[in-house]
């Protein structure tokens, strides 16, 4: 078994317990941390830089669709992320993998299957549900946008999220306590890195990513 520091980010205590049990079969006897919302997860990552693996619930409180995963990949690109969710829609799985998840585990999976998935990820491989009929090499506009998000710095990512909320440059500058000219430079860099034409397109694609899970469930 491999020695890996991990944290489970899920708001359901019973599932966290089950996931710990499955992880014990694939990982050495290392303590697994827990977080019940997105803010607690990021606080734990700051306090515990040794964490190498995150189990992230798609609908954890504080996350908007796949934005939680995108933010995690942007700020901690070296951390492995295993998505866990009751949502088994192919579109969700495709986008999660495009953003950078190493695995997508349905919550309906048995403990043995979950353990197998964890072991595969620890060995450096990706894992998908055997029944999932998806294309991991998607070249859709949304998939390309998701992959490009990793090119942004954390500050640029924050600017993008505020653009998506409809904020003007001067409002973003005020919120971040920096000059408006600096925001304009960030916006130019964001558009170039994301390969989009304007801030409106960037905001729409970001919003689509943030709401995709909700849209699929409604």
TrEMBL record:
HTH luxR-type domain: residues covered: 145-210
SUPFAM superfamilies assigned: C-terminal effector domain of the bipartite response regulators, CheY-like
Gene3D superfamilies, per database record: 3.40.50.2300
Example of a GO biological process term: phosphorelay signal transduction system
Domain of life: Bacteria
Key words of the record: DNA-binding, Phosphoprotein
Protein name as catalogued: LuxR family transcriptional regulator
Taxonomic path: Bacteria, Pseudomonadati, Pseudomonadota, Gammaproteobacteria, Alteromonadales
